[in-house]
Every structure is written in structure tokens, then in C-alpha cells.
Design brief:
The protein is α+β, with helices and mostly antiparallel strands. It is built from nine helices and seven strands; from the N terminus they run ααβββββαββαααααα. Strands 1-4-5-7-6 form a five-stranded antiparallel β-sheet, sandwiched between helices. The radius of gyration is 32 Å and the shape is elongated.
Length: 310
């Protein structure tokens, strides 16, 4: 660390500068800094575990293809009539495609709702080729307004697909695919990921700022006090907390906040490149300041210097 008064470098845990005797406030806070590290990393780890479990549960649901018997039972429970098309010469082609290579080829029909859902199982490469071809043909049919929409989903060596005639049946077919385990709401996965990211960044930011307050001689909990937080941040950056007024002026606050971040990084002895990066990427680079033991410029106080006798 570097003494604010005389510039002498010495270990962060030493209470006073060995050259001029200036008090090192950071030496009183090693336990607080260590505790903050434990809190931040354990919090992020806990959230990460929950997020990972949620993703595994979703992925597990997506990775289990159903058998022809399961398809038949599930669809009959929903009131569909299920027919086997395998070997039927009159129905050996659907959507202009041949399914003679399929191991099983079944269809579930609900005449009242006008919904037909096809289920196919076979060799993985065959299922993949059929899926790609179906999607191409459905896309063309949708462009030509022959059908309203379509759904084609695969898991391993199985495939389910359906053409949709109108908007009313779209949501019904979507729910049926979910019921079969072939359509997952990716929006839910996105929101889980987004929430995890935001929460992690928020925790990282708050704990890092609390640690910075501790390192500069203030109780970390002061960070939670509105206005004082901005005041002390400007005190760190410019040795003048009154400048925090600029953080409350629309538009001006954007540029001033960037400059404040730049000055804070500079105050902590960082390189010019890091200072510029920190100005823009504060949330991601805060830990490099909060937990960098090489720092030491303290918020200046008028030191008491004993007069020397000549």
C-alpha cells in the first residue's frame, strides 16, 4: 500500500506508516474485508447452484423422448383418438414425405378441435432429415398462406409435428407439445438466466462498494445511506463530496458518473487503460478495486505532524 501523507509503500496490515507515522485505517479492517469476500462469493455460489438445478431440471425434461406406447396413452388421456400409420399404404406419405423408414408412425386426432399431431420414431439421422424437410415445407406453406402455422420438435430419435389451421388451435397444440415434453418455454429459461445475472451483478456491486468504503476508512454499511453514498463516492474521487450534486442533474450525471469512476480508479493507483475501462464497466471491474491489496490512497485528513526541534 502507499501512504497518503508521504508516499511510502508498506504492507496493508501495518497500522502506521513506518516513515511518517500516518495512521493506516485499513489495518483495522482485514476481518471485515475477509468477511465481505465470504459473503459475496457464497451468495453468488448459492444463486448459481439454484440456477444450475433449474437448468438441469429443464434440460432433463427436454432430453427424455417418449415411446409410442407413452404417446398413445398420453394423447388418449387428453381425449384424442390415436392411430398407427405404420404400414398403411393409403397413409404412407404425409406432407409429401415418405415415412416408410420410420420404426413407428402414429397420429393423434381430435376431430372437434381439428387438431392432428403426428409422432415418428426411427434412426436419428432419418429423424433429423425428416425434421429439416418438414420445417422447409411448413415454412413454404406458411408463406403461401396454405396453413396458419406449424410445430416440429425432435428429441433424440423421435419427432412430433403438426400443422395448425388458425390462431385458436395454435396455443392448444403448443400446450399439447409441452404435455408430451417436446416443447419447452425457452422464455422461462431466458428469464432465469437474466434474473441470475442481474442478481449476481447487484450483489457483487453492493458488496464491492461496501468493501471500498471499508478500505477508505468508513463503515461499509454507510453505503446504504442515500445521498451520503454519492457524497462519499465523490469524496473518494475528488476529495470534495459537494460535487455529488452533479450526480443528480439529468444528462450531466451520465458524463459526471463516468468521470467519477475514472477518478476513483486513478485514486486507487490503477493504470490509465484500467481507469478508462472502469469508467464504462464499473459493475464488472469493481472487485479488482475492492479486493486489490496493492491499493492504498486514503481519503485525506489533515495529519497531525509533530514539530521538530532543531
Amino acid at each position: 500500500m502507499k501512504c497518503w501523507h508521504c508516499g511510502e509503500k508498506y504492507d496493508i496490515h501495518i497500522e502506521k506508516c513506518p516513515k511518517c507515522g500516518f495512521q493506516n485505517k485499513n489495518s483495522k479492517n482485514p476481518k471485515a474485508l475477509a468477511k465481505a469476500k465470504v459473503i459475496i462469493f457464497s451468495s453468488i455460489l448459492s444463486i448459481g447452484i439454484v440456477f444450475t438445478i433449474a437448468c438441469i431440471m429443464i434440460a432433463t425434461k427436454m432430453s427424455k423422448p417418449i415411446t409410442p406406447e407413452e404417446f398413445k396413452n398420453k394423447m388418449e388421456q387428453k381425449g384424442y383418438s390415436v392411430y398407427s400409420l405404420k404400414g398403411s399404404k393409403s397413409l404412407e406419405t404425409v406432407q409429401g414425405l415418405s415415412f416408410q423408414e420410420a420404426t413407428d408412425f402414429d397420429t393423434a386426432i381430435d376431430t372437434e378441435k381439428g387438431i392432428v399431431i403426428f409422432y415418428v420414431t426411427g434412426d436419428k439421422e432419418y429423424i433429423k432429415s425428416i425434421s429439416n424437410e418438414l420445417k422447409k415445407r411448413y415454412d413454404q406453406s406458411e408463406k403461401e398462406k396454405e396453413i396458419y402455422s406449424s410445430m416440429v420438435e425432435t428429441i433424440d430419435n423421435t419427432l412430433v409435428f403438426s400443422s395448425i389451421k388458425d390462431s385458436e388451435t395454435y396455443n392448444i397444440v403448443r400446450e399439447e407439445f409441452k404435455y408430451l415434453g417436446y416443447s419447452i418455454d425457452l422464455g422461462a429459461l431466458f428469464y432465469i438466466l437474466f434474473a441470475y445475472g442481474i442478481l449476481s451483478i447487484a450483489i457483487l456491486s453492493v458488496i464491492s462498494w461496501m468493501t471500498i468504503f471499508e478500505k477508505t476508512g468508513k463503515n461499509g454499511w454507510y453505503y446504504w445511506i442515500p445521498i451520503y453514498r454519492e457524497y462519499y463516492t465523490c469524496q473518494i474521487a475528488f476529495n470534495n463530496g459537494i460535487l455529488c450534486i452533479l450526480l443528480f442533474i439529468p444528462y450531466v450525471n451520465i458524463l459526471f458518473n463516468l468521470y467519477t469512476n475514472y477518478c476513483i480508479a486513478k485514486k486507487f493507483g490503477k493504470s490509465k487503460a484500467f481507469c478508462i475501462s472502469f469508467a464504462v464497466l464499473e459493475l464488472w471491474l469493481l472487485p479488482f478495486i475492492a479486493y486489490d491489496s496493492t491499493y492504498q490512497e486514503q481519503i485525506p485528513e489533515t495529519p497531525s505532524i509533530e514539530p521538530t526541534t532543531i
